[in-house]
């Protein structure tokens, strides 16, 4: 006779695997739909990257493989990544996966700028606020910056005027623009990417081996 505790554990595990299977089916259906997003937004996002090389379809896929193997997230957590951008970037594995995706599209400056602004807001020392703000300006804002972000003239101009006396919130307008750009443009494409589907698929297989070894 089956031990009730063992049977209960197997049923709960099977439920977790079933949940992840539903995610995969949903992702496959979404991937088959035509892209009906805002074309002007996508064009705007790519203007600052026109000098860079075209994306190779297999670029950084090995990195996604490594992330999938190292991930310790549960199927429930992976599902939350698909439901919310904030959920995705609040988990280390999710943030790493999204960073890798942006690198494959040559737009990693967006998440790096956003994270730098978040770090600035936690700073207490006036001297460190000034140095961090100057670094953010030099790295992401000024003309021909190494990781120049794509923002409008007025927003950039306001930052240029404020950088001489920086505050914790001097990049707020630019940060909000970049955040919205990632939410509306990069995040949906990340969820439709083959690399993300591969991450989910590997988590499914890991769950099957861990909880249902008899399959």
UniProtKB/TrEMBL annotation:
Q: Does the keyword Ribonucleoprotein apply?
A: no
Which PROSITE patterns did the record assign? RGS
Write the record's keywords in alphabetical order, separated by commas.
Answer: Signal transduction inhibitor
Keyword NAD among UniProt keywords: no
What positions does the domain RGS occupy?
84-200
InterPro entries from the UniProt entry: RGS (IPR016137), RGS_sf (IPR036305), RGS_subdom1/3 (IPR024066), RGS_subdomain_2 (IPR044926)
Membrane-spanning regions, if any?
A: none
Q: Which SMART domains did the record assign?
A: RGS
- Report the record's Gene Ontology biological process terms: negative regulation of signal transduction
Q: Name one Pfam family in it.
A: RGS
Under which name does UniProt file this protein?
Regulator of G-protein signaling 21-like
Look up and give the organism this protein is from: Notechis scutatus (mainland tiger snake)
* GN (gene name): LOC113413114
């Amino acid at each position: 006779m089956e031990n009730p505790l063992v049977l209960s554990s197997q049923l709960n595990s099977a439920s977790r695997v079933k949940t992840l299977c539903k995610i995969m089916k949903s992702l496959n259906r979404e991937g088959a739909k035509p892209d009906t997003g805002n074309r002007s937004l996508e064009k705007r996002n790519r203007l600052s990257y026109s000098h860079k090389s075209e994306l190779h379809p297999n670029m950084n896929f090995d990195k996604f493989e490594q992330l999938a193997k190292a991930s310790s997230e549960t199927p429930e957590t992976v599902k939350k990544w698909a439901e919310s951008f904030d959920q995705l970037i609040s988990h280390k594995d999710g943030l790493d996966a999204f960073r890798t995706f942006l690198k494959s599209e040559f737009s990693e400056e967006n998440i790096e700028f956003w994270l730098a602004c978040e770090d600035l807001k936690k700073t207490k020392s006036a001297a460190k606020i000034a140095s961090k703000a100057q670094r953010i300006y030099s790295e992401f804002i000024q003309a021909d910056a190494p990781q120049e972000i794509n923002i409008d003239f007025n927003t950039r101009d306001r930052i240029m005027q404020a950088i001489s006396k920086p505050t914790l919130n001097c990049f707020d307008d630019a940060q909000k623009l970049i955040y919205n750009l990632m939410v509306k443009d990069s995040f949906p494409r990340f969820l439709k990417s083959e690399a993300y589907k591969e991450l989910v698929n590997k988590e499914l297989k890991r769950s099957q081996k861990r909880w249902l070894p008899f399959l």
